[in-house]
Amino acid sequence: MLAPTWIDTLVHESHKPTKEQVIKWVIMLDRELPAGLQLNAVACLSAAVGKAAPAMVGTGGIDASGSPHAGLPWTGCTVLAATAAIVKTVRATALTEPDLLVADMASVAQRSRVYDDYLAGLARLQDDDLTYYAVSIAGPRPRVDRLTGRFPLLR
User: Fold this and answer.
1) Has residue 153 been placed in a domain?
2) Membrane-spanning residues where (predicted)?
3) Which tens digits make up the pLDDT trace of 34-82?
């Protein structure tokens, strides 16, 4: 995953509603996956994005009881549903767009129980042979909207 240029200059705008943010983040899932696999894909892609773009994660907070709470993405994250074929097509298109942060989860990732086995399995497959369960796209709002704006929310 290549880091786009906006990551280094991202201005923390946690005071604005997500629809007013200059950066938009979406995760598009295969709508036919069982809920457990969908949740796993979202969790894994969120970790990948948090590592690649730590400035997207806000500071933690303390509740009135004094209990700490982890920082969450101040950009928000929209979760969309599509067919597996559309997820793959949107991923391919997003990779050609400048300044988008793209992360994906291929089916080989969820079939592997050992991370090195996942990497080895991935290395053996051509892109045409991969099935994508999910794709995460973050970047300038107009570019992300152009790719994903017509797809429904995951319900």
Assistant:
1) no
2) none
3) 999 999 999 999 999 999 999 999 999 999 999 999 999 999 999 999 9
